[in-house]
Amino acid sequence: MIKTKDLAFNYDNQVFFKFPNINLKSNEDLLIIGSSGIGKTTLLHLLAGLLNSNSGSIELFGKELNQLSSHQLDRFRKNNIGIVFQRPHFVNSLTVKENLQLAQYIGNKKNNNRIDSILKNLNILDKSNKKTNLLSQGEKQRASIALAIVNSPKLILADEPTSSLDDSNCFNVIKLLKKQATEYGAQLIVITHDSRLKKHFNKSIEL
Amino acid sequence: MNIFRLSIKNIFNKPLSSAISLALLVLGIGIISLLLQLNSLIKDQMNNNLKGIDMVVGAKGSPLQLILSSVYHVDSPTGNISLAEAEKISKNRMVGSSIKLLYGDNYKGYRIVGAEKKFIELYNGIIKEGREWNSPYEVLVGSKVYQKLKINLEDELISSHGLRESGESHDDESFKVVGLLKPSNSVIDQLIITSPQSVWNIHETHDHDDEDEHEHDDEDEHEHDHEHEHDDREITAMLIKFKSPMNIIQFPRQINENTNLQAAVPSYEISRLFKLFGFGIETLSYLAYIIIIVSGFSLFINLFNSMNERKYEMALIRTLGASRFQLSIMIIFESLILTILGFILGLLFSRFGVMFVSSLMEESLNYNLNSFKILIEEYWLLVMSVLIGLISSLIPVIRVYKMNISKILADE
Q1: Is residue A172 scored above 70 in pLDDT?
Q2: A87 at the B interface (CB within 8 A)?
Q3: What pLDDT, on the 0 to 100 scale, is given for residue B223?
């Protein structure tokens, strides 16, 4: 269950965002579409608990995010949420596999078999001992998906995962994300300005 | 994977910038530790050799030279004094015991000292192999000498005149090794010791070539009779222990004022020497502390820059669910690993330094310093290294605490 109500946010009393209500049953995925500067990333950060909303409420899996302390939010995030960023980020001193191991260490979910199976599933198992800066763009994107799902989150948040890709790659990535989400039993919320993705989602919201 | 391993990986990911801070720290810690070690080793060595010697009597000259030559056996003697005059002093009621020393010859740069047997007892010398000397030209050899020159019992040593290897050699004078001494960690380790009579014999045969041989066959116990027959016999110096420590103030002055001998008090001279040393050591250690402070700054700048470079990766780690505390620990580890490594390498550096200085001293002075114990002051260096690690990570840690993950990630 994912529910938001009257969510609003303003930066320094200057920029003011008001977001439509979201109401997702479990197993439902969502596409949030909006043009640049309309607060897409802000919404994603609110949903991930990286930002505190000024007004309104977010309820994720029975927890009211506004009522959690920052420490509880950290814990909630590591147990429930995986984020795929617009540009993939990694810990640069570590290999692909070590990045995933670090994520597992932070999430207290050590399991090397799972790492291997995810990497195999994403077709980058042979890169597992490479430093992340040696990966190609596509491999980086897949590795960042691996990082988002390695701790079996209940919700995957993806920020513009396809914005810089051509049609066929765009299709591949969104297929991959949906497949991973289904396979590992997670709900998927994709935030994008890319209208090509509309046809892949049953449910979408326009900002 | 854990935070500690992550910190290590981060350090090795930027080896160059880590290496610079590390090198500075190693240099600073190394210099201070080296100074501490040398200071303590030299003091130990000096004091060890000072035991039981309250005063040294010798020819007029520099008192420090007299001490260095007759207590530490490193400088040339100030000259010779007449045996008769020395005997007069040794019979003074304030004198507890006295040991006469005679120099003259060396064997391959190692001094041959004519001394009474008490001399060996003074340094707790123990015969490892062989026996004491019974007649002139028999010698006991100190541990460093026989180890270095591979001398065995029964070997014949042909001495050279003077205290340096290049001296004129007494072709006809050879000494017979009758005993080897156990290492005693004192000056006798680097000496070849014989009876006073041996030295007198050599130089008398030189001075009075046609004198009868039988006179020289006499042994130690007859020395006293000799004195009266040969009033012109000389010794180099006499080591004296007083009956009461009170005499140390009055008696040396009496000798210096009333006789043409010189009396020097080793403990005065050595503390004077250390004061001179001390100034140099202090200056150098200030320099080293400055280097350590610079290394702290370099460490801080290093961490600070890498925080900026790694802000996305920090934000990522936070979004994975790591707490601020875990991230701070990562930064503190990165800093502490470097400073503790710097401390360990610094100590290694200083030990190599001690070995190097020791080999130099051994070459020129036949002295060596060997001890690898950790001094209390070095534990303070460890505390200091840890503090530098903590202080230089303080500001980066505060920044991590204040980091706005959302803003960093939105900035991309």
Answers
A1: yes
A2: yes
A3: 44
* Contact with chain B for residue A134, Cβ under 8 A: no
Instruction: For Cα atoms B352, B18, B391, give the angle at the middle one, nearest 5 degrees.
Output: 95
How many independent structural domains does chain B possess? 2
ipTM for the assembly: 0.90
Q: Which of B264, B298, B321 is the last residue of a domain?
A: B264
Helix, strand, or coil here: A46? helix
Other C-beta atoms lying within 10 Å of the C-beta of residue B131? 11
Positions of chain B with pLDDT under 70: 163-172, 204-231, 363-372, 412
In this structure, the answer to whether residues B357 and B215 fall within a common structural domain is: no
Cα–Cα nearest to B235, from B17, B62, B85, B127 = B85
The pLDDT value recorded for residue B282 is: 85
Pair B354, B392 in one domain:
yes
Which of A86, A89, A102 is facing B1, going by the closest CB pair?
A102
Nearest Cβ partner of A107 from B312, B321, B323?
A: B321
In this prediction, residues A73-93 reach a mean pLDDT of 90
Find the mean pLDDT for residues A55-73.
Answer: 88
Name all domains of chain A by residue range, CATH numbers in brackets: 2-206 (3.40.50.300)
Note whether B258 and B283 are same-domain residues: no
**Residue holding tokens 């200091």?**
B384
For chain B, the residue count is 412
CB B23 within 8 A of CB A112: no
Give the separation between CA A192 and CA A196, rounded to whole angstroms.
Answer: 10
Per-residue model confidence (pLDDT) at position B225: 45
- Residue B406 with chain A: CB contacts under 8 Å: 42, 45, 50-51
Buried b (16+ CB within 10 A) or exposed e, B6-24: bbebbbeebeebbeebbeb
Q: Identify the pLDDT of residue B224.
A: 45
B40 and B160 part of one domain? no
Asked whether residue B255 falls in the same domain as residue B337, the answer is no
Q: Which of B209, B236, B264 finishes a domain?
A: B264
Q: How many CB atoms lie within 10 A of CB B120?
A: 22
Is B10 within 8 Å of A98 when comparing Cβ atoms? no
B73 lies in the same domain as B213: yes
Does the beta-carbon distance from A102 to B310 stay under 8 Å?
Answer: no
pLDDT for A70 beyond 90: no
* % of chain A beyond a pLDDT of 90: 29
Same domain, B335 and B198: no
Domain that holds residue B368: 3-46+273-410
